[in-house]
């Protein structure tokens, strides 16, 4: 047992005894009842009593923490507080500072001690005794005598039920706040009202479209409406009830309702219910960590995301009118550790994997050639990012399909993992999200083509004021990216080793230092390998007619050398892994099974109707073709029924004719068939000759329309030429 420990009950009977003194010689302890308010005088208990309670597990020992006021310096206290503390301590100091007097007060004969303190301090008995009790109850130090204003009002619960006068009106004597000058006053809130509000708060699940005033009305509708029956009716009578709202003198004020409702729900929980858990975690939850937690250095993880630029781009092929081609989509790829923008792509389609793969391709390749395409000359040191990362973090968008991500991972270019954020949680990749705000704010100046969140109503639409062409916008964007990479301060990205080596604060400094510290050299891949890995992966079927993918046939000289079509015809069809792009259906690609070189297959003549088309168009055409085939199958079936009926009628006619003819009983071949065949052939020739004579006679009497006639190679066409009629 030690000072400032508590003896707490383990059963339903509440007991809290604070140990304020221990006397080993007397084998006694002095305890103060913590549940008494105001505090009472300490009492002495024997060791045996305490041990008996602990052994029976009726009580147990716990540590106790006193108020923070015990450690407060005088400079932080009000002068009036210090004065009251000093007056109270001066009255009891002769007792608490004398161990002999204190021991006698706790465990011996304490008669005369309190009288002496009253005489010396010239204070009342109640005041002196209360000071002694407060001193030991709140910590046994001078600051224990400070007024505990932080506890004022916390223990007040208010009346249990409203009090009404004899005339039925509500008693408003205890109503807080100023009196109401106009209209009837609201009554005060009671424990019963608080219980109802707490019960009402448990029913609130979604507060998205509800404000506090609406909640107050809902509360009154549920708890402040009474049913009224006509006077004089009994329970057996059939009488229609009607409802009435309690008068204002029987209602609590909206302010009291809102204040206690927020206390029941809590400010944070109120925000969570109003916005939803996802929005709360994204916009309102604290985030003590950093995105680079657990990463070893640059290239460990890249983040990729897209946003729509707040600017309209000018159509550069119009010389007489200022036209716009819309707002582009910006893709950023950012290294998490250094916050370096390692890749960028701007396009007018998407978001789709085609644009995202181009941004990743830009992140994995050298930037000198990329910047030169837009007329900007830089060195490799200005933008030293042409390396492949280990991990990549993406959104769970439809553009990031399973096939696309699997193809990247199986492409064996160095990426080992793809991390997908939770739905609607853009804050999970805050590095790239913040970069969008910074770059767009700097790269897009204020002009007529810029998009504002709150535009002026009198201004023209930004699409009417496009200023920068695509090339000019890319020039501004690239310069801002390089400026940010080389000048932005990244204090939170610094670790102990960076501070030790005096590494600069910019993303480029952190990137260069991390690359030098890396054990493994950067992974370098050819452009063909990168593009192949960034295309979508699927499986195609090898048939004797070609490599069939989505109903389209492909072939190449390499496929013929491998004799895949021959194997499919003789050994059966088999599947191969291929890569394709959504933007064109003319080609697919695969790897050679032995050399691993990339094989490009072209669409065959069998599927020439699908050449140079988007895959979306191909699939749409195939769906339309299925509909046409289904309609043709229906027509074929109905026509087949009609044809069968006609043939059946013909067969019946033939059978009737056969019944009139004599049938030979012989079983050997008929030797006269050849002669009849010769006669029938001669008759057919005679009929064909008659048709020829009729056709020639018609031709002799027919006058043709003028046709171009050329004599030699250089003579002009003669429109007046007309062939003469020739008599038959």
Describe it.
It is a single chain. By secondary structure, the protein is α+β, with helices and mostly antiparallel strands. The chain folds into 5 domains: 5-151, no CATH class; 191-281, no CATH class; 293-517, Nucleotidyltransferase, domain 5; 539-617, no CATH class; 687-728, no CATH class. It has a 6-stranded antiparallel sheet. A 5-stranded antiparallel sheet has the order 4-3-2-1-5, sandwiched between helices. Helices cover 38% and strands 14% of the residues. Mean pLDDT is 81; it is low at 423-428 and 710-728. A hairpin with a 5-residue loop joins β9 and β10 (341-347). The chain has 22 helices and 18 strands. It is elongated, with a radius of gyration of 48 Å.
The CATH superfamily of the largest domain is known as Ribonuclease H-like superfamily/Ribonuclease H
Binned, the helix content reads: 25-40%
Poorly predicted runs: 423-428, 710-728
Overall mean pLDDT score? 81
Distance between the termini: 143 Å
Enumerate the strands of the largest sheet in spatial order, edge to edge or round the barrel: 16-13-14-15-18-17
Shape category: elongated
CATH class of the largest domain: Alpha Beta
Name the structural class: alpha+beta
In total, how many domains does the architecture comprise?
5
Quote the beta fraction. 5-15%
């Amino acid at each position: 047992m030690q000072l400032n420990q508590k003896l707490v009950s383990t059963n339903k009977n509440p007991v809290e005894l604070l140990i304020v003194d221990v006397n080993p010689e007397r084998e006694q302890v002095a305890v103060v009842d913590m549940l008494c308010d105001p505090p009472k005088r300490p009492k002495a208990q024997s060791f045996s009593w305490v041990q008996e309670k602990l052994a029976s597990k009726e009580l147990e020992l716990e540590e106790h923490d006193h108020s923070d006021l015990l450690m407060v310096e005088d400079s932080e206290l009000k002068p009036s507080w210090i004065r009251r503390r000093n007056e109270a301590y001066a009255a009891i100091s002769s007792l608490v500072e004398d161990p002999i007097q204190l021991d006698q007060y706790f465990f011996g004969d304490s008669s005369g001690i309190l009288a002496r303190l009253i005489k010396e301090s010239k204070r009342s008995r109640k005041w002196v005794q209360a000071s002694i009790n407060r001193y030991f109850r709140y910590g046994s130090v001078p600051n224990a005598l400070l007024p505990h204003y932080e506890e004022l009002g916390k223990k007040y619960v208010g009346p249990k039920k409203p009090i009404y006068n004899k005339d039925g009106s509500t008693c408003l004597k205890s109503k807080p706040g100023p009196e109401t000058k106009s209209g009837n006053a609201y009554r005060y809130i009671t424990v019963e009202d608080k219980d109802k509000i707490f019960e009402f708060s448990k029913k609130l699940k979604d507060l998205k479209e509800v404000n506090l005033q609406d909640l107050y009305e809902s509360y009154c509708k549920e708890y402040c409406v009474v049913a009224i029956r006509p006077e004089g009716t009994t329970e057996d009578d059939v009488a229609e009830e009607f409802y009435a709202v309690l008068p204002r003198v029987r209602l609590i004020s909206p302010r009291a309702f809102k204040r206690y409702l927020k206390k029941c729900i809590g400010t944070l929980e109120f925000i969570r219910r109003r916005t939803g858990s996802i929005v709360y975690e994204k916009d309102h939850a604290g985030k003590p960590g950093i995105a680079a937690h657990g990463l070893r250095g640059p290239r460990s993880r890249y983040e990729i995301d897209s946003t729509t630029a707040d600017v309209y781009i000018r159509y550069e092929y119009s010389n007489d009118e200022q036209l716009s081609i819309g707002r582009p989509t910006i893709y950023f790829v950012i290294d998490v550790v250094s916050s370096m923008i390692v890749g960028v792509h701007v396009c007018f389609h998407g978001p789709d994997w085609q644009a995202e793969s181009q941004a990743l391709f830009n992140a994995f390749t050298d930037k000198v050639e990329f910047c030169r395409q837009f007329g900007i000359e830089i060195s490799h040191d200005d933008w030293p990012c042409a390396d492949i990362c280990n991990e990549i973090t993406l959104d769970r968008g439809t553009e990031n399909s399973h096939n696309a991500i699997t193809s990247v991972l199986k492409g064996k270019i160095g990426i080992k993992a793809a991390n997908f954020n939770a739905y609607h949680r853009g804050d999970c990749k805050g590095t790239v999200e913040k970069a969008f705000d910074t770059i767009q704010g700097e790269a897009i100046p204020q002009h007529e083509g810029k998009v504002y969140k709150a535009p002026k109503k009198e201004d023209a639409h930004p699409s009417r004021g496009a200023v920068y062409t695509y090339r000019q916008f890319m020039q501004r964007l690239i310069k801002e990216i390089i400026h940010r990479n080389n000048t932005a301060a990244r204090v939170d990205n610094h670790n102990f080793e960076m501070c030790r080596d005096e590494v600069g604060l910019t993303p480029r400094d952190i990137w260069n230092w991390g690359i030098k510290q890396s054990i493994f050299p950067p992974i370098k891949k050819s452009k063909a390998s990168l593009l192949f890995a960034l295309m979508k992966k699927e499986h195609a079927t090898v048939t004797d007619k070609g490599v069939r993918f989505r109903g389209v046939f492909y072939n190449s000289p390499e496929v013929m050398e491998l004799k895949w079509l021959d194997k499919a015809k003789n050994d059966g069809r088999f599947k191969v892994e291929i890569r394709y792009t959504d933007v064109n259906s003319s080609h697919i690609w695969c790897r050679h099974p032995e050399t691993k070189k990339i094989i490009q297959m072209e669409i065959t003549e069998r599927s020439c109707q699908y050449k140079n088309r988007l895959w979306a168009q191909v699939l749409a055409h195939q769906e339309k073709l299925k509909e046409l085939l289904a309609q043709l199958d229906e027509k074929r079936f109905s026509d087949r029924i009609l044809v069968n009926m006609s043939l059946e009628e013909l067969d019946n006619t033939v059978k009737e004719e056969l019944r009139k003819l004599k049938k030979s009983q012989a079983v050997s071949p008929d030797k006269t068939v050849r002669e009849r065949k010769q006669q029938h052939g001669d008759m057919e020739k005679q009929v064909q000759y008659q048709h020829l004579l009729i056709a020639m006679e018609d031709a002799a009497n027919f006058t043709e329309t003028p046709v171009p006639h050329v004599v030699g190679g250089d003579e002009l066409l003669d429109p007046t030429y007309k062939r003469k009629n020739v008599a038959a």
